[in-house]
Amino acid sequence: MPLNNVTTLVAEDSAAHTGATAQEQLILDEAFARRDGILQHLEAELATPAQDAVEQARMRMLVRRRAELQHAEQGLIFGRIDALDATVRHLGRVGIPSPSDNGDPLVIDWRAPAARAFYTATPVDPQGQARRRHIRTQGRTVISFEDEPLDGSRASELVGEGALLAALGERRTGQMSTAAATLQREQDDVVRADSRGPLVVQGGPGTGKTVVALHRVAYLLFTYPKLAAQGVLVIGPSPRFLDYIGQVLPALGETAIVSATCDTLVPGVGVERLEQRELAEIKGRALWQQGLARYCASRLPQPAGVELLWEGERYTIDETQTARTIASATSGRSYHGARAVFIQQVQDQLTDAVVARSEATMAQVEDGLEDLLRDFDAVFTHTDNRAASSGATGTDVDGMLTEEDIELLREKIADDDGVNATLQRWWPTLDTTRELRRLLDDEALLEQWVPELTDAERGLIAGEPRTWASSDLPLYDALADLLGDAIPNNGQGEFMSDRASAQRDWVYGHVVIDEAQELSEMQWQMVMRRCPSRSITAVGDIDQAEAPHRHTTWQEAVSAAFGDRWTEAQLSICYRTPMEVMALTGAVLRNAGSQNEPPRAVRAAGIEPWELSVTEGELAAEAARAVEQLSARWKGGMVGVIAPMERLTALREALPGTPVLSASDAKGLEWDATLLIDAPSIAAAPRGWNGLYVALTRCTQELGQLLVR
Ligand SMILES: Nc1ncnc2c1ncn2[C@@H]1O[C@H](COP(=O)(O)OP(=O)(O)OP(=O)(O)O)[C@@H](O)[C@H]1O
């Protein structure tokens, strides 16, 4: 082809491209105009105060819709899918309806079923689609677009490769960003998976587990709007991590969410100290659930006669009757739940006994009165017939109490301090803190109720300080659940999230757990208690596990909680860490004892990882110098430092303003560049190779290491 023809073709292509960009701009303009109109309308509606509960519920819905639309300033439209029948659909962060009643939506919400083909159509399985287009916008302006024909003329395992690589190459901000525009096929499968029953998602570092987990929350809330009333609980490994993901959910348009770590799940109880790994492992075992149940059952009263005093008279509820009452009250109930039923039943029995005795007494009095009247009548009959006509004799004064009298009596008995004090002595209310301390501090009690532990383990537990460590919280939660609330706690607050966070026994509609490989068996139990329906999504990497439990497979990790009733999904491509760095991880993983291969990296950064050997004396200054260089190279991005625990304090002093974390605390986080310090010492710690695997995989661009000689 002559050169000038090529030039003409390129010019034509570029003219067509410009024309298509202009067309997309028109559509984006229309979508923004409509979105702004809807927002104005919502503002006006929300200005009128709600009159009743129905209106309040509607207002809450409108507030959510307003938040969704406001957050969609970026990415109002990010994609388009053209069907073989020439139907064109635009996709965005939220749905934008057509201005006309019956018109097709201007923009389809990415979570809607009609949007699915955008994420899953392939040349092999085009699902009736001809082309996928990724549209890049900046605010209200279309910047560019990238087309992927689905006719097999271009094959890539990635969906929207250009847009994805652009997103992955961007500078990190310290906040996770949304990936709705570039979700990949295997990720989308997890996002939209059936929400019935537990789903465990295994994925190596940087495979998008957090991305998937958060987009799944947004998808579920969109697909099942009723979930918003119960809420979704998101559990992450640390407050720092929760902060890192904090912006994503509002940006995805979701507000019905409570986020927590396992250490903040129990209202009013917090972690007061660090603990030894050995103790954390012992206290994380599933056997405690049974042990605590046995201990709790031992605190129930034994059947015996109860003697109650009412208005100076003694009433006895005999042993057979208390045995029956205890048995019926305890079945399937917590300690305090059973206590409340028992007390109610005893109060009823006392009321019946008082009524019966009072009626018997009245009957006797009546009999006596009748005898008296009869004598009286006998005296006066012959002179006067008044008694017969007065109605003052016999059955008119029958001594029976009315229904109202009995109800009043029941209330008085229920409020009576004396009766309540006797019942409290007989079946006392218990305090969870005191009971757990009583058990944990006493080797004899531990031997009696948790016999699975060895003598040495019991000794270690009883010798701990009397303050709470992280592994105590699931025990506390389990015991609090077995005991139940002595006074029902109905959390207050305008928003679902306030009420849910305040109530230990709030039941969520769905729970998402990130870095789920870290959970101990008792922590899994704690999570399940908050979601008895088991609608749970757990994402994690069993090879990144650093917690003291000994699980090396998901089967081991979750079988105590779920038995065999859970499904597993896999994510296999690493989006975060460049190939050059991932090449270092295979050997580390093998040293960690894993049978798995690291995930395949999707991109190269073009920068080889480097290392520098320094003396102990040089370390602080060299670390500061390296951070300065990396920060200059990744200007506008972020540099993070990972070091062994014992070096953190000194390095934090030397590197003010730079995150300096242990491998555990870096879990889930990422930076443009990582400076890894003294890797051998990280590897030497318990589960240290797993920690090093985490540390190596935190960077999106560059890894530097300082080795101490
Ligand atoms: N489909 C996607 N589109 C754009 N960015 C993505 C996509 N998937 C993952 N990423 C990016 O890749 C990085 C890693 O994702 P994420 O943190 O979810 O991985 P992870 O599996 O949880 O990693 P780790 O277990 O190592 O913490 C993040 O920056 C995330 O935004």
UniProtKB/TrEMBL annotation:
Binding locations of ATP: G203, G204, P205, G206, T207, G208, K209, T210
Record GO terms (molecular function): 3'-5' DNA helicase activity; ATP binding; DNA binding; hydrolase activity
Keyword Hydrolase part of the UniProt annotation: yes
Domain UvrD-like helicase ATP-binding: 182-578
Protein name per the record: Helicase
UniProt KW keywords: ATP-binding, Helicase, Hydrolase, Nucleotide-binding
PANTHER family to which the protein is assigned, alphabetical: DNA 3'-5' HELICASE, UVRD / RECB / PCRA DNA HELICASE FAMILY MEMBER
GO cellular component: cytosol
Organism listed in the record: Arthrobacter alpinus
GO BP term, pick one: recombinational repair
InterPro entries, alphabetized: DNA_helicase_UvrD/REP (IPR000212), P-loop_NTPase (IPR027417), UvrD-like_ATP-bd (IPR014016)
